[in-house]
Amino acid sequence: MTRAGFIALAGRPNVGKSTLVNAIVGTKVAIVSDKPQTTRRAIRGVATHGDTQLVLVDLPGVQRPRDALTRRMQRRVELELSDADAVLMLLSGSEGIGPGDRWIASQLEQAGVPVVLAVNKIDRLKPGQIAERLIEAAALGVGDDIFPISARRGEGTDELIAHLRTLVPEGEMFFPPDESSDQRREVVLAELVREQVLRRTFEEVPHAVEVQVEEIDESREDLTTVRARVWVETESQKGILIGAGGSMIKKIGETARKELERELGTRVHLELSVRTRRGWRGDERLLDRLGIQ
Ligand SMILES: Nc1nc2c(ncn2[C@@H]2O[C@H](COP(=O)(O)OP(=O)(O)OP(=O)(O)O)[C@@H](O)[C@H]2O)c(=O)[nH]1
Ligand SMILES: [Mg+2]
């Protein structure tokens, strides 16, 4: 008999949820950045080993909604958390445990779903500090098991995965064993472009950017042409992204192209155009088209 189930990731923005999902799946299914609120969609990452399939549900960091975009993100978090077989709540060992974490813990307690805690980023801590963080994590009052881990370096993740495998019920697998994610290809490619934008922008710009892939042309076997729009909210953001003489968008395009080539396994010609669309984060129809639900 096989086992299969859904483990949803909960935690504040930037604690390392997407990094951990990638580490467990063993391939990059979610983009990662040092800016909070990187993840905007629920992403199912599939890890099948032997007779057990873990479906990790990467989610946006829990936050207070400000517009249609963040309202949708927060609603998605609540839906997915209540649907999961278990919730893996991630804490940041390096930033410490605070009121945001306590709020999430209280929500999970009310939802009545089994919770596992992991304290991430222990590579930044001395052994004594790790022990302190574990005690603080235990004081949250949710989850019987607490795992110290480094999602980036893979420390402690084997023990965590072994435990997660015991939490999913007997039943049919949800995905073919060789599949790693449920995301549409357009979205995967758009996210890889957005990841490069996030690496190079600061303050309000990362939050104001979304990428939409308009066309994937595979008529040539050895070369894929990808056309993508980069949405920003203001002319000044557009100026920042294009950069002096187009230098910024050129750099973004060069590194994004390499990521797309790795993903697609062909050479890639990437065409990026930057467009201003005032208030796109409040535009329900555009959010539908972008698959942010
Ligand atoms: N030192 C260290 N950094 C980490 C570790 N895990 C993640 N990070 C870094 O933490 C930052 C945030 O990682 P993400 O995986 O994007 O965090 P997230 O929780 O998915 O964030 P949101 O999608 O915004 O909610 C990135 O700069 C990661 O490289 C870790 O184990 N150690
Ligand atoms: Mg994330």
TrEMBL record:
Q: Where is the Era-type G domain?
A: 3-170
User: What are the BP-aspect GO terms?
Assistant: ribosomal small subunit assembly
Q: Which UniProt keywords apply?
A: GTP-binding, Nucleotide-binding, RNA-binding
Q: Choose one Gene Ontology CC annotation of this protein and give it.
A: cytosol
Q: Which residues form a coiled coil?
A: none
Q: Which InterPro entries match?
A: G_ERA_dom (IPR030388), GTP-bd (IPR006073), GTPase_Era-like (IPR005662), KH_dom-like_a/b (IPR015946), KH_dom_type_2 (IPR004044), KH_sf_prok-type (IPR009019), P-loop_NTPase (IPR027417), Small_GTP-bd (IPR005225)
- Where the record annotates domain KH type-2, the positions are 193-278
A single GO molecular function, which one?
Answer: GTP binding
Q: Quote the HAMAP family the UniProt record gives.
A: GTPase_Era
Q: Which family does it belong to?
A: Belongs to the TRAFAC class TrmE-Era-EngA-EngB-Septin-like GTPase superfamily. Era GTPase family.
Q: What PANTHER family does the record point to?
A: GTPASE ERA, GTPASE ERA, MITOCHONDRIAL
**NCBIfam families assigned to the protein according to its UniProt record, in alphabetical order:** era, PRK00089.1, small_GTP
What is the name listed in the Swiss-Prot or TrEMBL entry for this protein? Unannotated protein
Source species = freshwater metagenome
